[in-house]
Amino acid sequence: MGRTLQNTMINLGLQNACDEAVYQLGLDMEELEEIEEDAGLGNGGLGRLAACFLDSMATLGLAAYGYGIRYEYGIFNQKIRDGWQVEEADDWLRHGNPWEKARPEYMLPVHFYGRVEHSATGAKWIDTQVVLALPYDTPVPGYMNNTVNTMRLWSARAPNDFNLRDFNVGDYIQAVLDRNLAENISRVLYPNDNFFEGKELRLKQEYFVVAATLQDIIRRFKASKFGSTDSVRTVFDSFPDQVAIQLNDTHPAMAIPELMRIFVDIEKLPWDKAWDITKRTFAYTNHTVLPEALERWPVDLVEKLLPRHLQIIYEINQRHLDHIASLFPDDVDRLRRMSLIEEGGTKRINMAHLCIVGSHAVNGVAKIHSEIVKTQVFEDFAALEPEKFQNKTNGITPRRWLLLCNPGLAELIAEKIGEDYVRDLSQLTKLHEFVDDDLFIREVAKVKQENKVKFALYLEKEYKVKINPSSMFDVHVKRIHEYKRQLMNCLHIITMYNRIRRDPAKLFVPRTVIIGGKAAPGYHMAKMIIKLINAVAQVVNNDPMVGSKLKVIFLENYRVSLAEKVIPATDLSEQISTAGTEASGTGNMKFMLNGALTIGTMDGANVEMAEEAGEENLFIFGMRVEDVTELDKKGYNAQLYYDRLPELKQAIDQIKSGFFSPKDPDLFNDVVNMLFYHDRFKVFADYEAYVKCQEKVSELYLNSKAWTRMVIRNIAAAGKFSSDRTIKEYARDIWHVEPSDLKIPPPNEPRDAGQDKTPNGTAA
């Protein structure tokens, strides 16, 4: 979520008043804003997407709740020591959190372990261990519409009789100390992005948020039924018309068997009725196609932790496979491929398959990704129910990612086309009229230059490096992962360095290359990539032959509040994943909206950005998905490129020989070995096209006016990438609710009785 103060002031229309009031007190609002800690309760794009969605849902007047876990420790703070990443705990609650309100009156029990007893009345899950889920509510204000939604985060608490009933009679002190075991559930965020780690505590976290949330939703549903919260049996027929639940990846997939358990075991609905309601309630968003990221939980772990849920999953699977077998008799391989249970070695539950079978809609997050989902990853399921599969291209909130972080540009745009674009970003197309307006071109360039100077000052303060603010700011910020190919950027840096040294007199367009992002603590290769970038920076930044022509900076502890500083100052946005690996990307959209040009592959939302702006207004290079597929068929041989490309050979030889690590020449052997013998993401195959494309970038940068006109064409084409557009599509195509642009009267004005009714029946 990042910081909340400035976003709240903007959405409430109070920023200028607050700035002024604080100034009158002899204080500086910006200084105050810098004191607030980021709420870093997710890993990368997936968590930030949820935050943008909350802002858009409130702005569109949808009665929506965001549910998650109130981690005591969020994503780790990254320190760089001697070029290596070192993790520190993110103690973000140290000074308290003024934005949250604990709601002990809505505390709920969550059960684990135990066993299942079957009788004539049905199944009973008994002898369980109970953990309490305490909700904390954070307000989510819409933009200037007096709507405030809720983000409800659950914290784990041990019941007061924890370990004191039954056994353990003597050791009271130990029993109280053991309360920590239960409360550890919400202690810390698992720091993996695009990687599945099958740990018991992680499964506990996933079930914890799901079980608490579903009880909360059902309590609210029952209360809406004329306040009849007594033991009258509720009719759940209207449940899917009143409740829509969107599964953000497979992490909350246990919601499907959990809702079935509630309907069948507790509410005593017949299976078929319960299953129909469940399917119509859930929809699933897929966020990645990398096989190592797909959640596949061992059956024996689920059996130990959630024995009833395993039985329900087996029943769902049996009925699912019976249906497939009736359509495709004797096709045993299809049954194996489509089963929720993977046999062979340890039996595992394929959570994506569970989500597809248990949902009425499945979507990818960019056109190209949704196609890959349909034709490759889940092709058997799409062949069966093509109408279930959709696309919903991701977006970003223009409130945080333009108004808040780039007020200079936001104001400049408002002067030309009015202020309405903030709620309807498609209006940015009106800027096309000004692409030849010399004054506007100069003003856009001036805002960018001011942002760069401000960021350069920040860098010099934090990193003690002198930055040339007229150099091109070439920025690559995102989680560190092999598929995102920070290594390819690194090879380009080395290539530029070698060119400067080879011919110091030759014209060179000065660059400040900024790379930032966190590596998962257990991801060895990602940590080596960070070390390599820092080792290269060490050499480049201290070579007198290079001077101010080339500077390399590794941006420490990349997070939302740092993104808000670097993105408005960026000239060139690096979006260089191997085609077919980045589901969408959202950083790409933030840079586009803030007046950077994109160098990128035809991957994720880059494809649609090129479609909107015209391919000639992005620097597109490299293999397309078809080329990657072709190369896989042929067999990728890295050695061929190394032998054929002298500049690539020189760069690799320098890394290999210890040119960048003279004290430990073998330091980067693992990296070089990976690039030659098991590079799944084919860095060498795109290197030549990337370097040539970068030459075109430098050439255009020399012509400031032509560069800025291209920037304006990009900003004018960025309207599609508002999360408001994304959420309208979810609302209409999946949740079946209508967004409302009604401005609720403020609480100090009397309202008509008629205006008390919510225009939307469904809560998402």
TrEMBL record:
It holds the Pfam family Phosphorylase. It catalyses: [(1->4)-alpha-D-glucosyl](n) + phosphate = [(1->4)-alpha-D-glucosyl](n-1) + alpha-D-glucose 1-phosphate. One of its GO terms (cellular component) is cytoplasm. It comes from the Eukaryota. Coiled coil: none annotated. Homodimer; enzymatically active. Interacts with PPP1R3B; recruits the phosphatase PP1 which dephosphorylates and inactivates PYGL/glycogen phosphorylase. This is Alpha-1,4 glucan phosphorylase. The lineage of its organism: Eukaryota, Metazoa, Chordata, Craniata, Vertebrata. The gene is Pygl.
